[in-house]
Amino acid sequence: MTVVRISDDALAIACGADRVARRFAELGHEVVRVSSWGMHWLEPLVEIDGFGYGPASPADVEAILADQAGGLCIGKIADHPFIAAQTRLTFARAGKTRPLSLDDYAATGGWKGLERARTMTPEAVVEQVKASGLRGRGGAGFPAGIKWDTVRKAANPRKYIVCNADEGDSGTFADRMLMEGDPYLLIEGMTIAALAVGAQRGYIYIRSEYPHAIAKMRAAIRLSAQIVAPFVLEVRVGAGAYVCGEETSMLNSLEGKRGEVRAKPPLPALEGLFGCPTVVNNILTASAVPFVLAEGAQAYADYGMGRSRGTMPIQLAGNVKYGGLYETAFGVTLGELVEKIGGGTGNGRPVKAVQVGGPLGAYFPPALFDTPFDYEAFAAKDGLIGHGGITVFDDTADMAVQARFAFEFCAIESCGKCTPCRIGAVRGRETMDKVIAGDRPASNLALVADLCETMKLGSLCALGGFTPYPVMSAITHFPGDFVRESADAA
Amino acid sequence: MSSMSQTPTTDREARLDAAIRRHAGEEGPLLPILHAVQAEFGCVDEAAKRRIADALNLTRAEVHGVVSFYHDFHDKPETRPVLKLCRAESCQARGGEALAAHAERVAGARVKIEPVYCLGLCSVGPNAMVGEDLYARLDERGVAELIGAM
């Protein structure tokens, strides 16, 4: 009997992992369901004695067992260049442990950060997070320690920890993989946050499009309830509104209201959930904390560049040859990520553009591929790293259509609270329709630029405020796509 | 939470009350209740809105405002099977838009093709979801088979 390791991550399952696992079980072998290594082009990936075979189908199972599946064998998974070159701090367990096994978690250094935090004062815990340089991984990049300190110092004794798992950005899946693959890490991070600020309850707000992550997190919370007590955690399920990834609209949603954005101030750190001081952290922020506490702030801060310290789980997506999760220190260039690590496009055509940071992120042309992955460096190029998603497009992409889509998406998902976003997105889409139809493109593009300025400066949150990034970057870097055949010229 | 202001008179009302009661004691109970009602009946209709409003001491308008805000809640039940097809950027970059047009043609009026903005499988698109089952690396044949089996 052979022990076969296959991921039970939703992506692996969508690619047929359950059918492959069933086939091995039918033949009398022991199947262990583990988290995903994050090499998505190889899923379903089968691991036997450290060697990987993928992408595997049920028809390949007998050949794999007879060691006759040469074409599928990738050698030792841990030695694969995609894995060996990474610096996995947050995703250290990816591919290696059974997601819901408390034994596996403890055996791989789990709860060490929490144990250490329990011997420290809340101030000292916050100081560690501050010294690590950890910044919010949801997109805004706000220093996590400063946010925690604000909540710690708040007078109201009733406080909350809220984790934002409303990962709606296309091209991102790190939150999902973390929740499905290493749920106790998130629980440990949130529990440390609760100790540091004096919170009693925590909520994890997960989007409804992630049923597997919801089930895993709920099970993990149940199984670890005694370990994190007296802290109490609960999963809340979103209802299909992208804007609820914005922290204040998520808080409204948790309270049972329309997911409309709140004006700031007051900051959620002072008046957040139910008006109480609240830490709102992204999954990846909270999940970076156990390492910081277990290994020390300096060990984390030693990675990275400039004011971007530590590692970032980068997600390679879209039309990319080697798509998946790539955690590395800040500072790697966009070109290395797309061309070298990602291997260019999946279909072999030239790369035309990459969108970094989700639907509200800028489109970058290959001419800007020397930009290092760093909050400030991307801002200097009128872009953002957002949640670390990179979506690759080949040369068939029409950037005028992509610019139109950015407005359309904003119009669909706008919460409606502020005018620049609610009306601007609709007018922007209409104006882009005119540009695409060749109707006075020059004056209409000037109108789009003016509208983008208004949306950027006048919107309450990043949905309206950042929609100009994809639009203006497409216009700036791909002007040829906006010169259209006039409908009247025919 | 206090008991329902009106005693249930039909089986439907009893099921509705049970869904409300399951979550009424939670902090911010409205979304969990709406999810439970949507799962139980396939929609949150006018009668349900009024009964939920009653139970939570909200106005019917407040409940309606929340129901209408979120894509997951519907006024009427969908009678057709639903295929959620991702239409976001990463699937667009992998031929998702042409696939969506093909899916619409195959589905006709029998199956509803609903756009969804990201299933988080962005490296293996185009992707779809039926109920809670996920499908990746879809091509024209794959999506046609999927629709045919619904």
Automatic annotation (TrEMBL), chain A:
<keyword id="KW-0004">4Fe-4S</keyword>
<dbReference type="InterPro" id="IPR037207">
    <property type="entry name" value="Nuop51_4Fe4S-bd_sf"/>
</dbReference>
<dbReference type="InterPro" id="IPR019575">
    <property type="entry name" value="Nuop51_4Fe4S-bd"/>
</dbReference>
<dbReference type="InterPro" id="IPR001949">
    <property type="entry name" value="NADH-UbQ_OxRdtase_51kDa_CS"/>
</dbReference>
<dbReference type="InterPro" id="IPR037225">
    <property type="entry name" value="Nuo51_FMN-bd_sf"/>
</dbReference>
<dbReference type="InterPro" id="IPR036249">
    <property type="entry name" value="Thioredoxin-like_sf"/>
</dbReference>
<keyword id="KW-0479">Metal-binding</keyword>
<dbReference type="Pfam" id="PF10589">
    <property type="entry name" value="NADH_4Fe-4S"/>
</dbReference>
<dbReference type="Pfam" id="PF01512">
    <property type="entry name" value="Complex1_51K"/>
</dbReference>
<dbReference type="InterPro" id="IPR011538">
    <property type="entry name" value="Nuo51_FMN-bd"/>
</dbReference>
<keyword id="KW-0408">Iron</keyword>
<feature type="domain" description="NADH-ubiquinone oxidoreductase 51kDa subunit iron-sulphur binding">
    <location>
        <begin position="400"/>
        <end position="445"/>
    </location>
</feature>
<protein>
    <submittedName>
        <fullName>NADH-ubiquinone oxidoreductase-F iron-sulfur binding region domain-containing protein</fullName>
    </submittedName>
</protein>
<comment type="similarity">
    <text>Belongs to the complex I 51 kDa subunit family.</text>
</comment>
<keyword id="KW-0411">Iron-sulfur</keyword>
